[in-house]
Amino acid sequence: MSSPGRLIVTPGDPLGIGPEVAVKAIVQGNFEALLVGDGAAIRAEALKHGLKLKEVGRPDREGVSLLDTSGGQEPAEVAAIRLSVHWLLAHPGALATGPIHKARLARQGFRHPGHTEFLGELCGVDSPVMAFVGGRLMVSLVTVHLPLREVAGALTMEGVLRTIRLSARALQGHFPKRVGRVAVCGLNPHAGDGGLLGDEEQRVIGPAVEQAQSEGWNVVGPISAETAFRKAALGEVDWVVAMYHDQGLAPLKLVDFGKSVNWTLGLPMVRTSVDHGTADDIAGKGIADPSSMIAAIEWANQLIR
Fold first, then answer.
1. Could you tell me if 129 and 266 are in contact, meaning their C-beta atoms sit under 8 angstroms apart?
2. Which distant-in-sequence residues (6+ apart) come within 8 Å of 152 by Cβ?
3. Which residue, among 268, 263, 270, has the nearest Cα to 295 in the 3D structure?
4. Quick one: pLDDT band at residue 140, thresholds 50, 70, 90?
5. What is the gyration radius of the CA atoms in the chain, in angstroms?
6. Where are the beta strands (DSSP E) in 179-245?
7. Distance, CA of 211 to CA of 252 (rounded, Å)
8. For position 227, what pLDDT does the model report?
9. Of 6, 87, 119, 286, which sits 20 to 30 A from 209 (CA to CA)?
């Protein structure tokens, strides 16, 4: 299954399940893609699953192929992301990424808390938005990889408003049959309860929602997270903007794990990813489920069409 432009897949951490799910996804989905990353890990999985790889030295070669980024000054998975992004900023295509292990990379000097922040730096974008689509729920996050104690101080009206705008545009542009309504969560229990449980809703989130409404976006909030996700599950809203990582991803993964696609909004290129981590406990056992990688590749192909 080919698509306009070059589909690049970076399997991520070679010690996790990324190489396995990447190869399984390409085989099961009959995708044409360039695999970029640790050559030894990718070759081993390709051999297990009967995938013939043509080894190449640059991304513009057609067919199912491999570009090995191991042996350099930085980890293979980091070099793979860097090379892929640089290529895609100048050429048509899309990037689908496997999971990286943030703690392992940090010990090797990688200073970013995750893919999203690294992609933002490579693309010259200050605040890319992490979003998840593909299942029953569609969610975006105002803050991403922050300790919970830092979230309140990191919230700004501009950040909330940017997330609302990008989410509403994505909803309008790619899901035109939906109602098109975005629900914005509060930060505090009961969305602050009128200021009794915190004032971020009154100072930051509420004004951002009002500005978005004045621009014509179909958005409601701030409302409590449990209300927002219940409305999403019932089909009363189509997209939920969450204030922090677990507020958005706990309900999403309960309902849609393996079906959802991590889609980075606000970049000058298409990037999707799996909705799971490296799963070290099952790495090498051959039992990893490629469903999320298949969904990520399919969504990437759809976006570049």
1. yes
2. 187, 198, 200
3. 263
4. very high
5. 19
6. 182-185, 219-223, 239-242
7. 27
8. 97
9. 119
**Range with lowest mean pLDDT among 6-15, 250-259, 281-290:** 250-259
All domains in the chain, ordered by first residue = 1-125+267-305 (3.40.718.10), 127-264 (3.40.718.10)
Residue of 151, 168, 153, 143 whose CA lies nearest to 221? 168
Q: Give percent of the chain above pLDDT 70.
A: 98
CA-CA distance, 50 to 43, in Å (whole number)? 10
CA distance 241 to 93: 28
Residues comprising the chain, all counted: 305
At 272 the three-state DSSP class reads strand
Name the residue with tokens 């409305």: 231
Encoding tokens for residue 5? 């432009």
Closest alpha carbon to 32 in 53, 1, 55: 1
Residue 176 neighbours by CB distance under 10 Å:
8
Residue located via tokens 């969560």:
185
Contacts of 112 (CB under 8 A, 6+ apart): 118, 121
Query: Is the peptide bond preceding residue 222 cis, with omega within 30 degrees of 0?
Result: yes
